[in-house]
Amino acid sequence: MPMPTREQIARQIRRYYSLTDQGEIPTVIALFAPGATYCRPGYPPLVGRDRLAVFYHSQRVIDYGIHTVSQLVIDGHTAAVEGEFEGTLRDGMAVALRFADFFEVNEDLLFEVRNTYFFTPLV
């Protein structure tokens, strides 16, 4: 099977953010390959759909919000995203921050790897 096109990858990534913002967690998880790895600051690597489900349903500190993609760069099966997130955490605190995501997409258009970075003054 041929690798997806840049346009297909871009649509899949934008779909990911839209579904996440809508709270469509089962559909979000289905966008990841069964053995996918997601690395995010503050958590051990999340490996596999079952672990992703636990994260999205009970560990993710975000309650709801909106992702805005400002840049999306695709090279082969890898994509880099720069964007902004504005929303509310589960404790009720409002948050607005910039983020960067890096995705590796397989031939089935599923995410094999996702790495997230936040633009915030921690160090």
Tell me how many strands there are: 6
Global mean pLDDT: 95
Task: Give the fraction of residues assigned to helices.
Answer: 25-40%
CATH fold naming: Nuclear Transport Factor 2, Chain: A
Class based on secondary structure composition and strand pairing = alpha+beta
Largest sheet: 6 strands, mixed
What value does the Rg take, in angstroms? Answer: 14 Å
Question: pLDDT below 50 for ≥5 consecutive residues: which ranges?
Answer: none
Order of helices and strands: HHEEHEEEE
* Second-tier CATH architecture: Roll
Strand order of the largest sheet: 2-1-6-5-4-3
Query: What is the tally of helical segments?
Result: 3
**Structural domains: how many:** 1
Terminus-to-terminus distance = 44 Å
Description:
The structure is a single chain. The chain has a 6-stranded mixed β-sheet. The radius of gyration is 14 Å and the shape is globular. The protein has helices at 6-22, 25-30, 49-59; strands at residues 32-39, 46-47, 62-75, 78-89, 94-105, 111-119. By secondary structure, it is α+β, with helices and mostly antiparallel strands. The protein is 28% helix and 46% strand. The model has no long low-confidence stretch (mean pLDDT 95). The chain starts with 5 loop residues before the first helix and ends with a strand. It has a single domain (6-117), classed as Roll (Nuclear Transport Factor 2, Chain: A), CATH 3.10.450. The protein is built from 3 helices and 6 strands, in the order ααββαββββ.
